[in-house]
Amino acid sequence: MFILSEIRDTVALQPHTFGLDAAEVLARELNKKYANRILQDIGLVISVFDLIKCSEGKVRYGDGCLWYKVDFRLVVFRPFISEILNGKVKSQDEDGIRVSLTFFDEVYIDVSQLPAPCAYDFSRQKFFWSPSLEEGATRLQLMDSPFGERLYIELDAPIRFRVEGDEFYDDEPGPPKASEGVRVDLTREPKKPPYRIFASIAGQGMGPLEWWEGVGGVENQMDE
């Protein structure tokens, strides 16, 4: 789930920090710049892990700062494909489910990645799985199934999912505002997050944890 990524950057230290430990100040400045940021094709930065090497500080002409070239490592959140993670259901609609990991909310489970047979109940605004029906059951059969046989996916429910892929999006500046005398295109697609994960809950042991409570074989398999 977490990896180390090596980065090189140039950092300026202000004069009021000259009497302090340079390594500590550099780490603090790097955390200000990188922590909780998305780096394209790398992932979500959690914090600076360590400093690998650092040049001597140099003063630039007309600038009272000391400038350092620093090689350092970052703790980055970027789960690998097929990794199993636990989160909580943040929201859902007929297109799929959004899952939160508390520190990261851009996990999406498409409707095609739900266990079969599964359907979206518009009256309750949530998905349900009906394991008593055959995999090829139609929506009509699912909606006619007894409520007692439906396993609903509840909001905020702990859920186990498998990572299927991820996507980075380099956001471009938006169009000028209408107040500036330029027409705004209201047909534009909703803004995409800079980084998102695609997941699946199809398979044994996947989905809301309450579905598998008391199923010892599955729990033991997931713990291995």
What descriptors fit this protein?
mainly beta, Dna Ligase, domain 1, OB fold (Dihydrolipoamide Acetyltransferase, E2P), 2 domains, 5-stranded antiparallel β-sheet, 5-stranded mixed beta barrel, 3 helices, 14 strands, Rpb7-like_N, Rpb7-like
Question: What can be said about this structure in brief?
Answer:
The protein is mainly beta and 224 residues long. Helix content is 12%, strand content 39%. The longest helix has 13 residues, at 22-34.
General description of the model:
- The protein is mainly beta.
- It has two domains: 2-77, Dna Ligase, domain 1; 84-223, Beta Barrel (OB fold (Dihydrolipoamide Acetyltransferase, E2P)), CATH 2.40.50.140.
- Helix content is 12%, strand content 39%.
- The chain contains three helices and 14 strands.
- The protein has helices at residues 22-34, 139-143, 216-223, and strands at 2-13, 38-39, 43-54, 58-59, 66-77, 84-93, 96-100, 107-110, 118-121, 126-129, 151-152, 158-168, 195-200, 207-208.
- The strands form three sheets. Strands 1, 2, 3, 4 and 5 form a five-stranded antiparallel sheet that branches.
- Strand 7 and strand 8 form a beta hairpin.
- The longest helix is centred in the first third of the chain and has 13 residues, at 22-34.
- It is elongated and about 75 Å long.
